[in-house]
Write a structure and sequence with these properties.
Blueprint (H helix, E strand, L loop, with lengths): L12 H10 L13 H6 L6 H14 L4 H8 L6 H5 L6 H15 L4 H13 L3 H13 L6 H4 L20 E4 L2 H6 L2 H12 L5 E3 L6 H5 L3 H15 L8 E4 L2 H8 L1 H4 L7 H10 E2 L1 H5 L10 E4 L3 H6 L5 H8 L3 E3 L14 H4 L1 H15 L6 E4 L2 H8 L6 E3 H9 L1
Parallel strand pairs: 1-2, 1-3, 3-4, 5-6, 5-7, 7-8
Helix pairs in contact: 1-6, 3-6, 11-23
Length: 398
């Protein structure tokens, strides 16, 4: 793709990076076939190729209109297009850069700004989010359906494991996960304990993904630095950092890209990311003989397109004795996508219902996934139990 970047922007490192990404695009359109929003809306501007053109125009004109911003905001950042792209266009990175510049040159509708600001203020702060969630769960039975869908049922911790401070495996608790699905990390600790291993748990707070993907880059990067400041001093004492929420995991894995222009944190970000593993990678050499319960596996976009671990969860569960129910459109997003289910409820619900229908086609006894947002979002659309795969495994160990 030929570009002519605006003179006022051409010397900015982020713009030069975006320009290099834009030039990889060959207009082939393969990406539209795997884009969830294009599948729903059929609008070129609601597909990756159209959004790439909008970002190109933004960087060439140093301006963007509100309609174009809306097309960018409708993107789930699922990155299915990246997996499909034959030219290796780093679309997710391009979109993050484009949304930052768009936010600086346009004004979102008042309601969206208010909701976005509230989400960014409340969700990463456990001291606020946890009591508000508990309050919502108390009155959940009285709520109308559209509110109830956003308030998960209370989850108890079914596994009691004591953290080992000098363990070589360090588990991240996650900001939302520690409040909404606290049994997930407890389940991972239980599995590690069953092998004779030990783990320690760190309350790292928000990884920065929420702010960063809502175009509040400065705040998101500040949170990333805080996580690095917490983890970096311990790197010589541990072998592995494990995130059991793939949405957090993929963000931490990309700290080196996000912070590469930061002289103080670029190398630290690389060192932290090099220690990171998904639970699938940590446990795939483990030998277990578990139930043959039929399971539908939902692989989150962050896992299959971001962490490049597509198929690994299914392979591991099959190895341990589970029967996996196949389903169509495994590459399409479930519509959760962080705050997307709140900011784009109609599109999110359509994608959820489509995903739930496909996952339930084989009448599985349970649906498993690997990310807290996907778990809660899918459960709001089906009576079939939806669990993190670690919970299912840990329950069967007891």
């Amino acid at each position: 793709m030929k570009t002519e970047i605006h003179p006022k922007l051409i010397d900015l490192p982020l713009v030069q990076e975006a320009d290099a990404i834009l030039r990889k695009c060959v207009h082939c359109g393969f990406c539209t076939a795997t884009c969830p929003t294009y599948q729903l809306l059929g609008d070129e501007l609601d597909g990756p190729r159209g959004r790439i053109y909008l970002i190109k125009n933004l960087l060439e004109d140093n301006d963007i209109d509100d309609g174009s911003v809306e097309h960018l905001d409708r993107c789930l950042t699922c990155r299915s297009c990246e997996t499909t792209c034959p030219s290796g266009v780093e679309y997710g990175r391009l979109l993050d850069i484009g949304k930052q510049f768009a936010a600086e040159r346009s004004s979102a509708p008042m309601m969206r700004r208010v909701v976005s600001s509230l989400l960014r203020f409340v969700v990463p702060r456990k001291v606020l989010f946890k009591p508000l969630l508990a309050f919502g769960q108390l009155f959940r039975p009285l709520m109308p359906r559209f509110l109830k869908d956003h308030v998960p049922a209370k989850q108890s911790i079914r596994h009691s494991v004591t953290a080992t401070p000098d363990a070589r495996v360090l588990l991240l608790s996650g900001c939302v996960q520690s409040s909404a699905t606290p049994n997930v990390v407890a389940s991972l600790q239980r599995i590690i304990e069953s092998t004779g291993g030990a783990s320690d748990l760190v309350n790292e707070g928000c990884c920065g993904a929420l702010d960063y993907h809502l175009a509040a880059h400065d705040k998101g990067i500040a949170r990333m630095r805080q996580v690095i400041d917490l983890l970096y001093p311990r790197l010589d004492e541990i072998d592995t950092i494990v995130s059991s929420a793939t949405g957090c995991g993929v963000t931490i894995a990309e700290y080196p890209d996000i912070l590469k222009y930061d002289a103080d944190y670029a190398e630290k970000a690389k060192a932290v990311a090099e220690k990171l593993k998904d639970p699938v990678e940590l446990l795939e050499s483990l030998e277990l003989d578990l139930s043959s319960k039929n399971v539908a596996v939902h692989t989150p976009c962050s896992m299959q397109h971001g962490l490049d671990l597509n198929g690994r969860m299914e392979t591991l569960l099959q190895k341990w004795g589970f029967t996996i129910e196949g389903h169509k459109e495994g590459h399409l997003c479930c519509g959760s996508a962080g705050t997307y289910s709140i900011l784009q409820p109609e599109l999110s619900t359509s994608l959820r219902d489509r995903k739930v229908k496909n996952l339930g086609a084989g009448n599985p006894s349970v649906i498993v996934t690997a990310n807290v947002g996907c778990q809660l979002h899918l459960q709001s659309g089906t009576e079939t139990p939806v669990m993190h795969w670690l919970e299912l495994v840990a329950d069967l160990l007891d």
